[in-house]
Amino acid sequence: SSCSAGRGVAQSVRHSDASKACGTMAGAVGAIVAARRARESHRPVYFANVSPERLKATEDLLQELERKQKIRKIFERFDTNKSGKLEGNQVKNLLNELKKTETPPGVATDEEVEFILKVSDQSGDGGIDLPEMETALRAWKKWTKDRKAMEDLMKEFDKSNTGSLNKAELKQYLISLNGGRDVSDEEVDWVMTEADVLGDGEIHTVELVMATSKWFTLVQQEDTSKQGACCVAM
To answer: Got the DSSP string for 146-186?
Structure first.
């Protein structure tokens, strides 16, 4: 009987210890949950009172970061020698890859490669670095968008059939842009200098986009100057 009593006492002790352990564990869990809820109650509620303008600015920033990350990935893919810039063959490989998405797909010409390289190489080191990559992609997008129209215009104004416009032919093209009104030789010279990226004294088809853009820039500058002179006179 004394053994039975001893076993009963031992079991009671074990049950008591187990109950204490469970109680301790439950208390610990409860303390953790309470602490977490306390932290969350003091956590600021983001975007609850943010203006639509601020949300839009945040979205624009995220999109800009994503866009730049894509440009970086493209750059790193074609910078095969890890020089930090894309040179002749690397630029051609990039343009050939972009031309695969065109209908029909094609291959970049040496003239297109040289044009994109010279338009984008703002540092003058003979290549396209990462900051210049965006300029290259924009220039290519603009060229591919307007290529057909520029080719048709070249056929119309290239009276000498050389595949490019000399100064006299460029003047006739600018007169057509000017609504048939005359264009001065100084204006023609300015457009020629600004648009002749290839530097051979003529305007090729790829440069016609640049010549067109420069002409309208010149017209806008002249209009602004006239308005300023009018205001001064008044």
So the answer is: HHHHHHHHHHHH-TT-SSEE-HHHHHHHHHHHTTT----HH
Q: Are 109 and 68 in contact (CB under 8 A)?
A: no
In this predicted model, what pLDDT tens digit does every residue of 121-180 receive, in sequence order?
989 999 999 999 999 999 999 999 999 999 999 999 999 999 999 999 999 999 999 999
- 108/19: higher pLDDT: 108
Place of tokens 């048709």: 152
Q: Residue 84: phi, psi to the nearest 5?
A: 90, 5
Q: Is the overall model pTM greater than 0.70, yes or no?
A: no
Q: What are phi and psi of 165, to 5 degrees?
A: -105, 130
User: How crowded is the C-beta side of 20, counted as CA atoms within 13 Å?
Assistant: 6
Instruction: Characterize 43-57 residue by residue with b for buried, 16 or more Cβ atoms within 10 angstroms of its Cβ, and e for exposed.
Output: eeeeeeeeeeeeeee
Look at the block and give the residue holding tokens 């109680």. Answer: 23
Give me 101's structure tokens. 């998405």
The dihedral sign for the CA sequence 51, 57, 60, 62: negative
Reported as a single tens digit per residue, the pLDDT across 88-124 is 999 999 999 999 988 788 899 999 999 999 999 989 9
Which helix (H) or strand (E) is 86 found in, with range?
A: strand 85-86
Upper half-sphere CA count for residue 112 (Cβ side, 13 Å): 20
